Structures are given as C-alpha cells and as structure tokens.
C-alpha cells in the first residue's frame, strides 16, 4: 500500500486543486506555528525581565487568529476535497463499468461495496492524509532549520531521532496494510452476501428457509467485526509507539536545554524557542501516522478503484453506434430476407449482422454459440430452442452486453427488454419516458396498445402514480407490459425482446403478439420465446440447437431480386425444400 498513489490525480483531476491547497495551507500553518514559538518566548522573556509586553502580545494574538483561520479554512477545503474526489471516482467507476460487457464487469456485491463505502473511505485519505503528508515533508524541515539557527545542539538531537519515526511507521504500516486488506475482503464478502440474501428473500420466505440465512449473515458479520478489531488494535499500538518515541526525543531536547540554561550557557529566549519548536518538528510525522490508520481503508479501496479504472474497455468495433459494413449474404443468412422490403436494396438495409460468432462463458467450457452467421432485417424474427441453447446470450451479444469470443456483431442502437425489465423507483411516467421525451398522447397510446391504460387510469394519480423498485406495486405481467410500452415509445430501430409474453395469460399474450407484429412492420424485432403466440406472427423463425449452432431457419417467400442473389451464394451444405403455404426451410449443418 503506497502512501501516495499518483494515479489518483490522473483518475480524479478535481482532486489536484483542493489537495494542493490543503498542502499549502498546512505549510503556512507550520510557518505560523514557528512564528508563534518566537512570539510566545518573547512574551515570557518580557514578563521575566519586566519590559514592555504589548508588541509581542499583539503578534501572538495575530498569529493565534491566523492559525485559527487556517484551521477553519483547512476543514472547509478538506470537506470539498473529500466530496470532490469520492464523487469523481464514483462517477468514473460507473462510466467504466458501463463500458464493460457482462463477462468483464465485476460481481454486483463487490461492485456495490466499492462504489458506495469504498469511494466514501477515500475521502479521509484524500482530504486528511495526503495534505498531512505534504505538511510532514515541509514543516519538520522548517523547524530543523530554525532550530539550527537558534540552538544547533537541539537541532542535532532532532535530526538524529526524527528519522526513527518514519521507520517505525513503515514497519507498523506493513502489518496494518495486510490487516486492512483482509477487512476490506470481509466487507466485500458481507456486502455481496447481504445483497444476494435481500434479493432472494421472497424465495427464501416462500420455501421457509429465511431463518437459516440468519446464521450465515451472522458468521460473515463476525468475520468482518474481528478483522475490524484487529486493524484497530494495530492502529492503537502503532500510535502509542510513535507517541512514545516522539515524547522521548522531545524530553532529550528539553533536558539538554534545561541543563545548559541552569549553568548559564544558554539564554532564556533561545531555550524557550528550542523547547517549543522541538515538538513541532515531530508533530507532523506523528499526525501522518495517526491519519494513515484512519485512511488505511481508503488507501486499499483507492488501489482497487484505480485498478478497475485501468481495466481496458470492451472493444466496441462490433458494438458502435455506427456499424456500417458490407452486407453479408451467405447460406445461413438465406432465411433473413424481408417480405416487407422493396427489393434487394430494401432488404439489405437496417439489419443486424452476426458473422462467424462463437461465444464461450469461461475458458475451457463448451461454446454456448458456435460459428453463427445470420442477418436479421426489418420484420419479426423469433428465436426458439431448448434451454441453454444460447438464445438470451444471442440477444446480449446483439445488444453489446457481451463480447463474442470469435466473430463480429453489427447492429444499430437497440432497445432491449430483458426477462426482468429494469424499472427504477419512481412514477409510471418516469418509467415510460426514461431516456427520451414523449407527450401525453403518445404515452397513453402506448399504454392502450399493451392493454395497461385501464390499470393506470384506475390509479389515484394516473401516470404520476409512484412505483417501488423493480416496479413494485404491479404484477409480473403488468411490469412486462409496461416494459413493452416503453419499447413501443422508444426511437431505436432494433427491438430485442427476451420472453416478452412469459408472465401473461393466453389472451394477453395473443394481444401483445399482435402489438409486436405491428412494431415489426417498421423496425427490426428479434424475440426469444418458448410460447407459440409469437410464432403466428413471425416473418423469420430461428431454431438454435443444444450445441449452440443454428439448426433451422424458416422464412416466407423472398423478393425475386434478393432470391436471385441468394441462389448464387447458397452453401452446398444447405438443403432447401418447399414447405406448405409457400414457405422455404433451410437447414444449417453443425461444423465438424
């Protein structure tokens, strides 16, 4: 654990000015302390010698006022520095995690602890420890130089004993770092476990296993408590050791000065200055030791935060907002011609392209998707297959939430409705208009389209009624329809729907199937489902096998121009056979 990590100033530029200001104020306060020693000794000498004490008293009062002002200013700037640093680091973390895909993003519990309590613990590190470090580098040097001018034997004692404090602090700090790292690991474990318990509490209660989690939470909490007490014990012991060493050193200076003062070899004024300045030479170093322990958590959290910020962002070549490229026409893409297009050119525009994609969750495991090539144009593309075939993973790849192990994915901006849509706490209006503005006419049209207008109108506050986290206050089906209404209002040209009718009755599912078909008339809609309602409206039907390869794809009769282009590029491995009602079925063999 480094006393100062220069990466902080690069990651949080806002910290530079307040930290520099605090360091400068600490140095000025040290100089004022040295001046105070001279003024106080002058007052004492004037009283002893019965001379005019007015002038030294005025200087002493002015110096006390200046030091009080500097102390108050330091507190204000410290608060500013701490909040600025923690806010900027927290924002940088969220931006960085937002740029990562699901495979490289940290675990939720650890990320939550780091972005909340972790960023908060950096505040004392930046606001108190770093300025104290600057003061410790400046004030002892000023005190030693002044002592050398006033009384060189006292300066010699300070020069010989002062380096012992950083040595002891470094030795103790090493043990403190290990203890603090263990405590932070325990806190991250506690946060992650507590988050999982809270999220799964309804399920635990339903199965009567909630009480069993109490012991687990208690065990993790005790581990965190023990680690905290170990850190505090080391902190108290180290502070006592530094205080003892500094006290002995100051006592040596006081004894030598007192002996020389008693023999008449030293004047009262310089003796008082030496005795008053000696503690000030040790005080900044002692304060560094004290602040180090209070900021140790922040130093560990800062190191982890900066490590996360240095994690490379996911390559966005396949996920940029502008994903232009040469259209792919291959045998496995043959099922994706659009019957709504106006010829070949119309069918090749506004599509999602997946080329040679293989995806593996963990190194060494079997691929979830294998060598997948497809192009989805305007219309409704329904993806089916057994559980674990990679259907939701395919949507994640198109949305840019995951990065393919091999191959490329190209798509314009998408609107993604997951199996558990995100609905933040707030009003119904906020849930529907997140990310874009719509008027009331459009909003109620969307609610009417998904069959929620009656439900929302019956609420006392209508669209301004408040919902809890995850849409608490609505049923699972109503939350799903609210998410589809938000998709209906979204401006994106590509809609990704993961089990959009999973929580609906047959009548509601049929009605939403018609709505999704209507949306597909002007957008690219890719839907994953296990239910038959969407298949009735599908323009294209993809079947993914258990191996993650494209097993079958069905499409209606293609436009003549596109059909001619596809016939010229058909893969010999694809066998086509006419289906009833004029449909064409193509089968993609698994790679050997």
Structural overview:
The protein has 592 residues and is an alpha/beta fold. The chain has two domains: 7-309, ABC transporter type 1, transmembrane domain (ABC transporter transmembrane region fold, Up-down Bundle), CATH 1.20.1560.10; 319-378 and 385-411 and 529-592, no CATH class. Helices cover 58% and strands 11% of the residues. The chain has 17 helices and 13 strands. It has helices spanning 7-11, 16-49, 54-98, 108-150, 152-161, 164-199, 201-206, 210-263, 268-309, 344-348, 391-399, 428-433, 440-449, 453-457, 476-489, 506-519, 560-567; strands at residues 352-359, 369-376, 379-384, 406-410, 414-417, 426-427, 466-467, 494-498, 524-528, 540-544, 550-555, 575-578, 584-587. The strands form three sheets. It has an eight-stranded mixed beta sheet, sandwiched between helices. A three-stranded antiparallel beta sheet has the order 2-1-4, with helices on one face. Strands 6-7 form a two-stranded antiparallel ribbon. Helix 16 links the parallel strand 8 (494-498) and strand 9 (524-528). Helix 4 (108-150) packs antiparallel against helix 5 and helix 5 runs antiparallel to helix 8. Mean pLDDT is 74; it is low at 315-349 and 556-592. It is a multi-pass membrane protein. One of its GO terms (cellular component) is plasma membrane. It comes from Intrasporangium oryzae NRRL B-24470. InterPro entries: AAA+_ATPase, ABC1_TM_dom, ABC1_TM_sf, ABC_transporter-like_ATP-bd, ABC_transporter-like_CS, ABC_transptr_CydD, P-loop_NTPase, Type_1_exporter.
């Amino acid at each position: 654990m480094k006393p100062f990590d220069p990466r902080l100033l690069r990651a949080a530029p806002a910290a530079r000015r307040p930290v520099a200001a605090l360091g400068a104020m600490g140095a000025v306060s040290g100089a004022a302390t040295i001046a105070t020693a001279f003024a106080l000794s002058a007052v004492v000498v004037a009283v002893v010698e019965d001379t005019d004490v007015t002038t030294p008293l005025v200087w002493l009062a002015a110096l006390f006022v200046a030091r009080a002002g500097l102390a108050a200013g330091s507190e204000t700037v410290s608060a500013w520095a701490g909040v600025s640093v923690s806010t900027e680091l927290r924002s940088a973390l969220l931006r960085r995690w937002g740029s990562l895909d699901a495979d490289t993003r940290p675990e939720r519990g650890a990320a939550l602890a780091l972005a909340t309590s972790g960023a908060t613990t950096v505040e004392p590190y930046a606001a108190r420890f770093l300025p104290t470090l600057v003061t410790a580098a400046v004030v002892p040097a000023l005190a030693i130089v002044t002592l050398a001018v006033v009384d060189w034997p006292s300066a010699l004692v300070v020069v010989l004993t002062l380096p012992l404090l950083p040595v002891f602090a470094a030795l103790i700090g090493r043990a403190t770092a290990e203890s603090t790292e263990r405590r932070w690991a325990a806190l991250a474990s506690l946060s992650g476990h507590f988050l999982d318990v809270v999220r799964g509490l309804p399920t635990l209660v339903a199965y009567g296993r909630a009480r069993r989690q109490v012991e687990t939470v208690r065990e993790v909490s005790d581990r965190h408590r023990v680690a905290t007490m170990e850190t505090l014990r080391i902190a108290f012991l180290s502070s006592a050791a530094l205080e003892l060493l500094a006290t002995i050193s100051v006592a040596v200076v006081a004894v030598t000065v007192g002996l020389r003062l008693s023999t008449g070899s030293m004047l009262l004024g310089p003796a008082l200055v030496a005795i008053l300045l000696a503690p000030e030479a040790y005080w900044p170093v002692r304060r560094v030791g004290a602040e180090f322990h209070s900021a140790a958590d922040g130093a560990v959290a800062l190191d982890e935060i900066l490590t996360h910020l240095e994690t490379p962002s996911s390559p966005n070549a396949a996920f940029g907002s502008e994903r232009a490229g040469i259209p792919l026409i291959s045998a496995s893409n043959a099922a994706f011609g659009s019957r709504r297009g106006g010829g070949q050119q119309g069918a090749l525009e506004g599509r999602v392209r997946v080329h040679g994609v293989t995806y593996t969750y963990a190194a060494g495991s079997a691929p979830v998707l294998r060598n997948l090539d497809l192009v989805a144009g305007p219309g409704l593309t329904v993806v089916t297959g057994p559980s674990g075939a990679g259907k939701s993973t395919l949507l994640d790849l198109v949305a840019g939430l995951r990065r393919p192990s091999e191959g490329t994915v190209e798509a314009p901006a998408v609107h993604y409705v997951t199996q558990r849509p995100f609905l933040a706490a707030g009003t119904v209006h906020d849930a529907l208009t997140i990310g874009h503005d719509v008027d009331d006419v459009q909003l109620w049209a969307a609610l009417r389209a998904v069959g929620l207008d009656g439900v929302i109108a019956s609420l006392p506050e209508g669209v301004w009624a408040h919902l809890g986290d995850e849409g608490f206050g609505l049923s699972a089906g109503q939350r799903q329809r609210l998410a589809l209404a938000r998709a209906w209002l979204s401006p994106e040209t590509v809609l990704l729907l993961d089990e959009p009718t999973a929580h609906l009755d047959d009548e509601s599912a049929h009605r939403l199937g018609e709505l999704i078909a209507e949306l597909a008339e002007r957008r690219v809609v890719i839907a994953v489902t296990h239910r038959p309602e969407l298949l009735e409206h599908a323009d294209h039907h993809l079947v993914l096998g258990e191996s993650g390869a494209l097993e079958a794809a069905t499409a209606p009769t293609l436009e003549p121009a596109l059909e001619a282009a596809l016939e010229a590029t058909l893969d010999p491995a694809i066998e086509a056979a006419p289906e009833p009602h004029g449909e064409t079925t193509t089968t993609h063999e698994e790679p050997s």
